[in-house]
Amino acid sequence: MLHPEKMSRTCLHSRAVPAECCAFCGLGAPSTLVDACFDYIVNNLECLCDPASLMDKLMLKWHITLPVEICERLLHTRAAKTPKLINHFVQIFTDRQATRLKRVRLRGTNITDEGLCILLAHQLTELDLADNLLVSKDAIAHISSEASSLLSLTIGEQMNLFPASAFGDNIEKEYQDRNYIIYAPNLRRLSLRKLAKLKPVFFQLLLSPMRKLQHLDLSACGALGNFKCMAHLSNLTSLVLYNVAKIEKGVLVICTLKNLQHLDISQSKDENGKYANGTGILTLLIHSLPKLRSLDISGTNLAGTGVAESPQCVDCIGSPSAGTDIPGLAMRVHNPLQFIGLYETKHDACLRHDIPAQLIAGNANEEQIFIAALAYLDRAEMLQKVLNELFHLFRYETCKHVGQALYIVLEAMNRHPNERHIQISGSATLFYIVKGTGKELHEVMQVKRRIITTLLDAMCVYRYDDTMMRNGCLTLCQFKIPDDVVFDFERLVIILLHSVQGMAQESFVQRIGIYLLNSLACQVDAIQKIKLGELGVINKMLGLIDDRLDRGLCDDVLEATWSTMWNVTDETPANCSKFLEGAGMEYFLKCLGKFPDKEELLRNMMGLLGNVAEVRALRHHLMNPKYIAVFAALLDSLSDGIEVSYNAAGVISHIAADGPEAWTVEQPSREEVLWKMVTAIDKWDLRSDRNINYRSFEPILHLARTFETPECQQWAVWALANLTGVYPEKYCDVVMSEGGMHLLDEIIDHPLPPRRVKELAHIVIENCRTFKERCCMLDG
Fold first, then answer.
1. Which pLDDT score is estimated for 25?
2. What angle do CA 725, 729, 732 make, to 5 degrees?
3. Do both 356 and 398 map to the same domain?
4. What is the pLDDT of residue 30?
């Protein structure tokens, strides 16, 4: 017996994301068979590895040899799924005869120096070591010894590879004597981020042997002095100096890098983006770098004030504005840049009309915001601001390309799981996206799952953050519960249980969390109900009840706790047992004593006790004078129509059906209670609307067979007559499919049932026949 679904009052319907938008970002693409295979292998290493090695030094089975493509995919899949256990996994690559690696990305893993050595021995061409706290300075020698094959190297952000103690004010003599730090003469791409405490001499030594570099990223690195560290890098085609301070000192060196095609000198900090002569510096850069196709000056004043200014060089002679609102770009009017970053430039440069560039990152319109978001996906400071812009597009319902926006939000949240503001802005935007979508989005399983997974990831990290939890719960409410969330059922339940007891009392998060739990409990199958009990739903609900009783507070949360337990105990004896073991009956009596006039609370409690009474092995726990007296008294209740009286009669019927020998209570007596129950049943209106759901009539049909106790039989047959009469479409098929018609005929023909029971049986049979005839007519 289930409590009726209650979330329908709070769930909002939504519009769909156009299918063509999902096609833009691949969100709707199903998982490939290859993805599924690699996921299975990394979760079941015995497929590849010697079983004896699984708990020690991992080794491939003797007959297995893997090509480079499979080795790399295995490593990257494992690193993404279990980044904290990567050191154990990389041991399979010790055998270089059976395995091969070229491109290794270990971002955000717990790789150690020893694990890194195993991988470096493969003569890698690409190595990404960002966000690896366990890699120490000792690894420099290992990287350097194997670096001759390296073409791409990414280091930085959360790392201890270059500690300030060794490379700060007084760089160790060892490196000065040999005039390099890492000897990688063939390196083409170097990314070195967030090394703000290191001095110019470090960069000079690091870059000294890397004369073949084509791409250099020094984002958020310390001041580079006069930038002479890169003067010899004549092959550079891409230079990223995002959030590097005092770039003005290095402009002349930058101007000598004639092969530059991409230059990024953007800033997220106002103080670093101010130039004494912004227009003059931009003009000099544009004049000196003829191959430039992409330029990012976001967060600076290099775009000028937007008013007419005098030409800054002899090649810009003409009208004062030279055909553009950005004076420094005058000579590119007839040769526009492919991309320019103008996000948060001074004097609102992105709002100007004549900008000589094909793509503009800014905040003037939806297109500029999208371009900015894609350009800054790896930059938390900038991305946070862009996501706020994106949020406002949805808040005011002005976003036209929902699919692109969805892709951006999910990518941002997945790339920056520990950036609170990104998770907050992203989850708020997801709410508006999902709320404003609907049927078409909900038809794409991969889209739904990626949204839900991203939300749960964020809620796990920020489970104590009221805003994040609120955003997540509200967004989850827009999905079909439980169908859309069952793939990650256990994690969702754990998060919701935390929202119920881990958040502030009477908070919105607590309320919506318990309603989501109730919605889950109402609709999941028996196995999942058991899992709900194992995860502690019953105990959490009893804890909330205890708190409300202590404070004398009867609110919607108290009512919902009993409703949730009503649903989670439905046809689930294990959970009914947990309720009794947690002193649930004592809480029932206390709630009844403190809040006797709360109709919904009383109905929910009696509904739950009806589930307990259906379990024969537990009924003896209800055989207590206090409990029986309460059940008998509630037979006369008028609360919530007939619901409380009906449920009380159901509990008594199950107890009494075990026979006189099982009735161990002297007062009230079995005869007295059964007489009172029949008196109550005779008063009920057979056309009463009901606030209850049955998925099966098996417990009721069992009582209908108790010929030796016709009072119990009368309650059961009355229930069938009422439900098939008021809700024939819902319940007539249940009666017929579970053998009820044959049983009802048997009741009519049997000599023991009283006349009223037989009349009710006739009514049920007629209800079912009428329904069947109507269905046949409609089918015909």
1. 45
2. 65
3. no
4. 58
